[in-house]
Amino acid sequence: MVEEKLRYSDADLAEFKEIILKKIEKAQADLELIKSAYMNDLNNGTDDTSPTFKAFEEGSETMSKEANSQLAIRQEKFIRDLKNALFRVENKTYGICKVTGKLISKERLKIVPHATMSIEAKNMQR
């Protein structure tokens, strides 16, 4: 009788930890870019242009800042989810589906390292 694995091996967890750390590093760099674009208050010099153009420019700038703000919020959530995954690696519960209790496939975890549910569980939600 084949016993079903209850958790990933320490070697697997170390591999996942490396993947997660790389993703966190990249995500934090991306967040800094987004924030710098959001915080950029450099004036592109529309003072000498017609008032109509200036109004369009300011409206566009506001929309851009709002979009960047939303991107920053999503990126911060992504980083938080990755850090939570790292915590699960440390306490050796990483890769266990929170719905079925079965192991999430390695392929899924390599693509979505912050996943907490297996494809099976995700499909049950629909």
UniProtKB/TrEMBL annotation:
Zinc finger (dksA C4-type): 97-121
Protein's UniProt keywords contain Transmembrane: no
Residues in Zinc finger DksA/TraR C4-type domain copies: 93-122
Single GO MF annotation: zinc ion binding
Gene3D superfamilies per record: DksA, coiled-coil domain
Keywords: Metal-binding, Zinc, Zinc-finger
Protein's name in the database: TraR/DksA family transcriptional regulator
Species the sequence originates in: Flavobacterium stagni
